[in-house]
Amino acid sequence: MRRCSMTRAKYVGRWLSIIVTVMVILTTMSAQSEPTAATSVKWQRGEKNYIVALQSENPGVRQSAAFHVGEYKLRGAVQPLVTLLKNDSVDEVRMAAAFALIQLDDEQGRQAVVEASLRDGSDQVAQFCKTLLNVTSSRDSAMR
After folding, report:
1. Domain region containing 107
2. What is the rounded average pLDDT for all residues in the chain?
3. Shared domain check, 54 and 13
4. Are residues 71 and 11 in the same domain?
5. Same domain (yes/no): 78, 106
6. pLDDT (tens digit per residue) in 92-130
7. Cα–Cα distance, 139 to 131 (Å, whole number)
8. What total number of domains does the chain contain?
């Protein structure tokens, strides 16, 4: 009986891994990195929805929204991301906000990440911000 439940758990775990992997691949393939003129109305609506999600009570929703704002380059969400980086109580949410701000390549956002690297109350978040800044500085130098 015990052996059967172990086998079933492994089977379910494998299928979950496969499903998550397929979902990530499909999401990545179907997502546009930049809004286009033909879809700007849809992206404007999406941007508004993501901004609302950045204010959710659920930290997982806030973290996911921050990731997607950066991924889709939704520049109208810079200020809400800065607010999230400065004020959120969850380290992972602040790190997602910092990552999104760097992806958006906005001066105000970059400055907020610099400030977080120096003043965030969490060593983990501060170090993450420093690493982001170092990586982007190295990348920018290599591109020149």
Report:
1. 40-143
2. 82
3. no
4. no
5. yes
6. 999 999 999 999 999 999 999 999 999 999 999 999 999
7. 12
8. 2
Structure tokens at 79: 């200020």
Residue 89: CATH number of its domain:
1.25.10.10
Nearest to 96 by CA among 132, 60, 74, 67: 67
Residue in this structure with the two tokens 């400065």, named with its chain if needed: 86
Judgement on whether residues 23 and 51 belong to the same structural domain of the protein: no
Place of tokens 């969400």: 77
